[in-house]
Amino acid sequence: MTRVxxxxxxxxxxxxxxxxxxxxxxxxxxxxxxxxxxxxxxLLALAAIGLAVxxxxxSVIAAVRRPSSSGRVxxxxxxxxxxxxxxxxxxxxxxxxxxxxHAVVVAVDAATGDVRWRVTTPGWSLxxxxxxxxxxxxxxxxxxxxxxxxxxxxxxxxVAQGTTLxxxxxxxxxxxxxxxxxxxxxxxxxxxxxxxxGWRVALAPxxxxxxxxxxxxxxxxVVGSDGELPLQCHT
Length: 235
Description:
This protein is α+β, with helices and mostly antiparallel strands and about 240 residues long.
């Protein structure tokens, strides 16, 4: 059992090294390299965790079944190593992985200020936010597989629930002017009823740190917030 456990641990270490290699490759996208999808290194991290768990279980079983004290000590040592790999794998990958935040879109009921839905977009930033009929359209900029490229796609969401209707490779979309009776003040979306304030919604808890767009239509107010690139891009 300990031999099998050692093989599983070797596989876990190789998976972690592979994940770190992919992360290094991803970071080179800032210099014009083609970036891999971050999903790949996340899957490798999960594989490493799974292999380490299997190795830990086998080592514990071996420690229980070994008749000699020396055999039990050896199995316990393998169990400790397996536990260390299990703990270290997600920490190492998480520490190496570049941090970023995708752009966010939030829809608020125009009459009550109740939050209807919140959607995390595939891109790092937004452009040309608009509400037309029963859809919300916008251009998303960039994405996980091209973090340093100005790739534009048109994202279409349903007004009712924020359901993704389409994501097209289009670089144009009609923008919409911001409304005069809804504005962002000190981190709040505020409804202005003449000179008085109707309602306000705190945007920070919704992940809207920088409200770049506010549009209204079809009974909702939609706020868009840019995210952050996961690495420093060079041009």
